[in-house]
Structure formats: C-alpha cells, structure tokens
Amino acid sequence: MNQKELNEIRRRFKLDKNAISKIYGCYVNSSREIIAYIDESMGLMSQEEQEMYLGLLKKALSGTLGRNLIDIEFSTAQVSNSDEHRLLQTIRQTGLQDPNSRQELCRRIIDAMDMGETNYLILLAADTYDVPYKGRDDETFSDGSDTVFQYFLCSICPVKAPTLELKYNNENSGFHSASTGHIALPPELGFLFPAFDDRAANIYNALFYSKNAAEIHQEVIDAVFRVTPPLSAEEQKNAFGTALGDTLQQDCSYDVVQSVHEQLRQRIVEHKESRDPQPLTLTLHEVGDMLAGSGATVRQAEAFQEECRRQYGDDAALDARNLMESGKFQITTPEVKISVSPEYSAMIETRVIAGRKYILIPADEGVEVNGIAVNIPNPQNRESC
Questions:
Q1: Residue 35: partners with Cβ closer than 8 Å, 6 or more residues away
Q2: 228, 229, 225: which is closest to 105 by C-alpha?
Q3: Residues 97-104: what's their mean pLDDT?
Q4: pLDDT tens across 283-295, in order?
Q5: How far apart are CA 73 and CA 84, in angstroms?
Q6: Taking the domains of the chain in order of start, what are their residue ranges?
Q7: Radius of gyration of the chain (CA)
Q8: Residue 171 Rama label (left phi>0; alpha psi -120 to 50; beta)
C-alpha cells in the first residue's frame, strides 16, 4: 500500500463514511483470560461512543509506512491452502458474522500476546467499500464504482487500570475522590486484511501496525500470519550501521559516515518534494554507490553490498528512512553528546592535535551555555592586551 491508498482507507473511519454495523472483540486480562466479549451494534451507540470506537480502530492505520506500518506477505502456498489464510478469509468474507472464526482469531492473539501486567482490548470491525472510479487527475466519480473492497480491521488496545482522582461533584458542589474506571488507550498493535493495493483487495498481503516501530510483536505476527516478519525499523538501522562499520573498520571515519548520511538525507528530501506516494526504497547496488561516492574503495563498496545482502536478503529493497535518522545528526563520546542540524553536519571536523583526537565545531557567534550567551576569547587579542 502507498500513502494515498492508506489515506483513502483511513477516511473510511468517520461516522458518515463507513458501512460498519457492529464492533466485535473481547476484553482480556494479564492472565490471558477473557473477561468479556464485545458484540455492540453501532446503531445503538451514542454518537460519542461511535466516534471513540472508530478512533481506536483508525489509530491502527496511523504512523509511517515502512516503520509503524509494515507489509505482511503470504506465500502462494499459504493463499492456496493454509489454516492461517483460510481463517482470515473466512472472517473477511463473512463480515465477522461467524462467531467461531472470530473466537479462533482472538484466541490465537491471546495465546501469543504478552502485555505484561496490562489488560487489553481486542477490537474487530468489518467494512465494505465501494471504491469510486478515479480519473487521471485524481478526481473521483462515486457513480462509476466497479470495485468493492471488503476488509476487516483489528485493533489491540491496552487498558489503563482505574486510579483515584479528585473529581467535581455537582450534587454537593465539591471535589471528592472517585475512580477513573478502566480506560481503553490507543492501540499498541493491529492489522488490516487484506491490503488495499492499486485501490483493490490484495489477499496476498496484510498491513500490520505497531505503535513502537522498534518492536513489531513478532510473536503475534507468527501466531496470526505464520510468516517471517521483515526487520523492524530499528533492526534495519542497526543492520545498516553494523554493515558499514564491519566493512570499513579503521576506514569508517566521520567524513565517510557524514557523506553517506547526507546522500540519504538529500534523497529523502527530494522524494518528499516529488510527492510520490510510494515509499523511497534503495537497491543494494544504490547503497554501494553511495559508499563509493563517500570515499570508499571499490572493493570496500562491493564488500558493503555483500554484507547488506547477508543482513537484508538478496533482493532487498531498503527503505531509506529506516537506514539512518535523516532529521537528526548526533555525535557521542562516553562523556559528550553533540546534536547538529543535519544540513550543517559538514561543518564538523575531526583532527588530531598534539597527539590527541578532537571534534571541532565552528563557533563564531551566538554561542550559549544553558541559555547564557558566552564569549570565546581570541588568543591573539588576549596577547595584544
């Protein structure tokens, strides 16, 4: 799915935009026991309740594609004949009307899910979307729909335990202690099945959501989809850094890393300006060229590509945003941490002076320490005095 397709489905989660008639699911405690089942008709809810349920479901489609939202790919064999895909297809095709399949899905999630001591809520909703025809200029025609996208969304929300707070009581005009009750928080994870690719159902893919991009809940992916999940955004970044360091070793200098970071940043900026809805991906050959353009030898660039192939796979398409943090440039030593605006990272130098290694930062004007303006005296002026 690309960003435009994601946004199109996200817009469905408004009161007047969807065909969701019921909310299903269950409330689970930290001992993996189901406390209550949920079977609520949207038509019998107040408008506020409907908006709250839709908000929790919509949150499972939030974040960034390739980071919080990752593609789950089924094999042809799974789609043809597998319990996991058959279950998801049954839930989708029955619009969540089959209680046995709903309970089976919830049970698989519960058996795999580890939320520590936190209770959580599993929400399920099915929708049928008459996809409007879209012209070349992206203008939509609602009366020209020839595609129906039937899907369901799962949202898994932690539940905050009740606490005592001072609350105002209208009857006696005073503040008194009262319980907040159990509160459903935004989802920790969730998924959409099937994916909405080329504005149509793609039963070979699902879209998985994780609030924390560094932790993609592999145990749930394995239980529900039984596929090997892609590396998380944090794992991709760490693998890239490891490949760079292991390949260059002593030649992994500040100038090389800064140059690679700047090339990635420039590509990300240009891609954003192009408004291309597809995520920016790089081939192994392209990242090798980046390293070669940063001063590495041809042999080092080839070794880097080979290490990336080992880390990511033979035909990997690397999400540029997950390789380095383009919006941040940080230099750390055991004692010091320096943050630099990425566009000014080339101003930093490293030198060895009198046998000691230094990081040099130009500091002509506007220097502050804890908000206090300070002056850096010029030794030549001091000598003349």
A1: 26, 27, 28, 29, 119
A2: 225
A3: 95
A4: 888 988 999 988 8
A5: 13
A6: 3-228, 234-322, 332-384
A7: 26
A8: alpha
